[in-house]
Amino acid sequence: MSRPTLEQVARRAGVSRATVSRVVNGSTRVAAPIREQVNRAVAELGYVPNYAARSLVTQRTDSIALILPETATRVFSDDQFFPGIIRGVSQALEAADKQLVLMLVGSPAARTRAERYTTGGHVDGVLFASVHGADPLPELLLRTGIPVVCNGRPLGRSEVPYVDVDQNGGVAHAVRHLLDSGRRRIGTIAGPPDMVAGVDRLDAYRKILADSDRRSIVAVGDFTRESGEAAMRQLLADDPGLDAVFAASDLMAHGALRALREAGRRVPEEVAVIGFDDIEMARYTDPPLSTVRQPIERLGQTLAGQLLRLLAGEEVEPALVLPTELVIRETG
Do 171 and 290 share a domain, yes or no? Predict the structure, then answer.
């Protein structure tokens, strides 16, 4: 059987082809009784819209790209940040009847494909999460007229709107809690310096210690468990008297707990540990991890919401910052 056409639906409903097109494309400028006639004819004939043809008319694909400049191994590891962002974005786009296109850009070839795809008219807008360095792709897309929203404050000068969490406030609460608990030699496992979360969390840690006349003790990781373990060993070598650690991610904090256990250091009696993120794993470490909670799914929902407003022709805040919360468990 041949696929039903718009003209056949129009004849069955007793209306013009243009009226059917307006109803199928969601126009509200058609009277309710006429919409019912058209929808009844659509159901009776089993008509399915040709979205490729419709996009040529509407100049919309109803698809949104979420670009993660990470490898598949990193995105689908046990770091629940990325799945949380994807869930939040997906929920918001599904509610708006938009299709999510997930693009993992963990290599130069993948980046070239992403640039070609997003500038080729295949998506209506682009979301970025986990941007490294002053990545030129968000600005490039913005200059070509494609709506773009980033997760996290872009490094360097940028006109791209973004959604972030209160990095400074979250870290400040964590480090002040350690100071108020009597800890005197507080180190940090910082995130990578090419990511704004790594930069901002390290800056906030240094500011609080400087205000308290304490020296910074820093080792750098890359937000993974393995890097946290290695960084903790470095901190213990640099300052054996260390009595507290703020780790810029829960996975790095988990690695730090492992290194402390191997070194025979009791947590929290000898060394307190606080992480950042409050991923599910934080409740099940031994002992359960104190951490700074960021609203990961809400972050994804807000990212998508900002982009949907741009697509609707609305103005958006250039920077939205969501609150964080210190969650005290048993490590500090």
Answer: yes
